[in-house]
Amino acid sequence: MIIPLFFTGLRFVLTPVIMYYIAHAQCVYAFIVFACAACTDFLDGLSARYLHQETQVGALLDPLADKVLISGVLYALWMYTGCVPTWFVCLVVIKELLLIAGTVLLLEKKYDVSVQPIFAAKVTMFLQCVYVMGICMQYHIQLMQGLLIVCALLHVYVLGVYATRLQKMKVM
Predict the structure, then answer these.
(1) Contact 44/4 with Cβ under 8 angstroms?
(2) Largest CA distance in the chain
(3) How far lies 7's CA from each of 36, 44, 57, 60, in Å?
(4) Could you tell me how many helices (H) and strands (E) the chain has, helices first?
(5) What is the pTM of this model?
(6) Which of the listed CATH numbers 3.40.50.620, 3.30.70.3550, 3.30.300.20, 1.20.120.1760 matches domain 3-168?
(7) Tens place of pLDDT for every residue, the chain, 172 residues?
């Protein structure tokens, strides 16, 4: 088994576990498992580069695992705690679905989809992880609301950058 794919797979497996803990008001457990899942995002990329195990499958599954993790956990926090605003969950889910649709479009048209993610997308994922952990631990709600706005603005920016890339490739 390729080690980076193991870490990526863990995010898929841990997402419903985190959602379960959130649904049953076990926020400390949700925090711990989410922190572990978030670490796998770092570990899969690091191990892929360090062990020279970068694959096309990994390049596709890694961002998909991120999308499943963050969308699922934000949905659970919205549904079971009400701590995440509806508009933010909608923004994240719609953005992620549009990015998936863009990837499928590129694959159908035989384009190379191994494009490196932009730095802002990595920052967005990191800040969302901080936001989720802060919400789970009910940390300084005003600070979390500010972080939420920053994440929302970054989502819009990232979507715009990727849409511009597609347009330049003459895909759209």
Answers:
(1) yes
(2) 48
(3) 10, 5, 13, 14
(4) 6, 0
(5) 0.89
(6) 1.20.120.1760
(7) 689 999 999 999 999 999 999 999 999 999 999 999 999 989 988 898 898 888 888 888 898 999 999 999 999 999 999 989 999 999 999 999 998 888 888 778 777 666 567 899 999 999 999 999 999 888 777 888 999 999 999 999 999 998 888 888 776 6
Locate 78 and state its tokens: 């919205």
Closest CA to 166 of 75, 100, 67, 119: 100
Contact 67, 100 (CB under 8 A): yes
Residue carrying the six token digits 């498992």: 33
Phi-psi region of 110 (alpha: psi -120 to 50; beta: other; left: phi over 0): left
Tokens 């929302």 sit on residue: 152
How do the domains of the chain map onto residue ranges?
3-168
Residue type, 40: T
Residues 25 and 28: their CA atoms lie apart, in Å, by 9
Q: Between helices 27-50 and 119-136, what is the axis angle to 10°? A: 150
> Both tokens of residue 28?
């400390």
Residue pair 132/74 in contact (Cβ under 8 Å)? The answer is: yes
